[in-house]
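Q: what does this look like with NAP bound?
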Amino acid sequence: MKPLVLLSADQVLLGQLQNAFARQEPELRVVLADDPAARDAEVAACWFPPAGSLARLPNLKLIHSVAAGVDHLSTDPEHAEVPVCRVVDPAHRQGMAEYVRWAVIHYHRDFDRAMEQQQRHAWLRHPQKAAAEYRVGVMGLGSLGGAIAAELAVAGYAVRGWARTAKQIEGVQTLSGGQGFAGFLDGLDLLVNLLPLTDATRGILCRQTFEALAPGAAVVNCGRGQHVQVDELIAAVESGRLRGALLDVFEKEPLPLDSRLWTTPGIIITPHMASAASHDCIAQQIAENARRLDRGQPLLNLVDTHLGY
Ligand code: NAP
């Protein structure tokens, strides 16, 4: 089999992935972009591939994201016809579910208020709302959002879900498409974003969206930073229209030191840690697709490049 090339500006990640391939797939030759053998590669495994790096691969037959998202792969007209795959790790789902569960309990059970009250030594008790009265909306019902919406429903929350196409998930009221969006948002206490970043979803967490939620609702963004209109989010939190926001992803990562998001009371920042596929799983899935490509078999976790996810 031809060598596989790893493309990323992140040197630490490159080292970790090389080690994982050596552990999991010792038969596969894995090279970096500066290795002369990279020119023979038919498969490129990428995380933010440096500009022009894909164009230097004349034999490229598969672009593989090392993550669940593919928005970090720059669109390159030269490779418009090359198939793109992504990693779908069941452990990813578990990690994301843990993160979202924490967020739901944090806001539903008023931990945000208790922590703020502690700063001013205030002893205030708020009426406890039953889970069944707490309306949680999950945007994006794919491999992550679909499982999380189902799990929150089992935990007793009043769950709504929204996707591009119609879905059926037990215990979840599902809506779809542009016509279903207003009904989905209407009066939610908590909105969780698990959409992929595409032209249709960029900037979707904006003033209009926040105003459709219940007054004092909270927003959790685990999708991508570019889903958020940052100035509108800060204004909504500062005005009290939103009680707060938990943000895991940002347009620029690491979040720049001078970003107002760091210091706006009510906004919680986490460093893109909601969930990550294990390096071993990434290596196994990419190697499996490389073998399938070699044998002319159907690829796993193929992305629809026209839809962008
Ligand atoms: P996925 O399986 O591709 O699911 C995407 C979901 O979004 C699908 O339900 C899809 O609807 C829906 N969708 C796409 N475009 C839409 C639109 N215009 N309107 C309404 N719904 C739309 O993706 P996934 O594996 O669940 O991952 C989702 C995203 O999570 C990733 O793209 C990535 O950005 C993010 N992520 C973040 C982290 C983190 O650590 N923060 C980790 C992993 C992933 P259909 O089902 O109808 O097509």
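The helical segments are 11-24, 90-108, 111-119, 145-154, 177-185, 207-212, 230-239, 279-295. The pocket of NAP is lined by residues 68-69, 92, 140-145, 162-165, 194-198, 200-201, 222-224, 248-249, 272, 274-275, 309 (CB under 6 Å).
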